[in-house]
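At this stage, I wrote out one protein's amino acid sequence and its backbone structure tokens, and that material follows here:
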Amino acid sequence: MADAERQLAVEGAQRPRVAALAVLSGLLFFGAQLWIAVTGSKEPSIGVLQGLAPAFKGLKAAAVDPRTIKEQFLVHHQFALIAAFALSGIGALMMIAPLRYLANAERHRSATPSPLTSQFALAGPIMYGVFLLAFEISLIVGAHSYLSGSARTYTAASAATGGGLRVALQLILTVGTLLLAVVFIMLSLRSMRVGLLTRMMGTVGIISGVLFLIPLTPLPVIQSLWLVFFGATLLGFGGRPLPEAWIAGEARPWPPRQPAPARQSRGGGRGAGGGGLFGGGSRRGTATEPAVPAPAAPRGPSPSASKKRKRRR
């Protein structure tokens, strides 16, 4: 009991700072990625015909490699790109505080705690934020090296933009992106199970992790919104109380969803059968009693019958 109270006291003391960092990380990460996207939209593209132009002229390679315009773009926009990627890396590093805070809270409430979530919450943002900037700087340095020389051939462009260092940086960046995606998915799922996150927040967190691996949108909108909403939840924004698991200091799983009750129509026969597409299904399950015919009123003697009786007399 004392450990639970101590954990609640630590969480309460850290909550305002973690909430502020969560909101700032979401806003900074989204703003930096938006800056990168706007700057990258100005980058010239190399078409298929432009790449195949030397072959049409019977040449093995062009005297000036088509990638030269991309290298010139990197040099001309180097300061904007470095600043944008640096802010994006800072936003990723700021994710460590809310992710580890949620991981520690989930570990103290889970019946089967996992140390991987806390470790991934530290390693993923560091590898992603640091090596994303390092990889971009290596591309800019390669562009400077290429443009400072006199050769503009395919071999010179490949030597300036390739190399083992860039392959290693890209590999580490890929691992960091994978860890960041895994921690979003694992942490959202496990926290939702113990009641720290609502079903909506848990589902959005899982989707955010998937979008790190499969970026369906050019900007991290879902990931940034999840961070902002998580910080707003910790701050009690809008007067909404925290989920009960935060206050109790133990797991409070959400109750299972109850199936919706079947609707009954006025006629009594439509809803009871469990119906088809339009609600008029089989009526075998209806307990309807057969209609009893009303007793016929007694009829008096007809006038034709009385006349026949008089004739017989």
Observations:
- The longest helix spans residues 2-40.
- Residues 2-248 form one domain.
- Residues 71 and 143 are 5 Å apart (CA to CA).
- The mean pLDDT is 82.
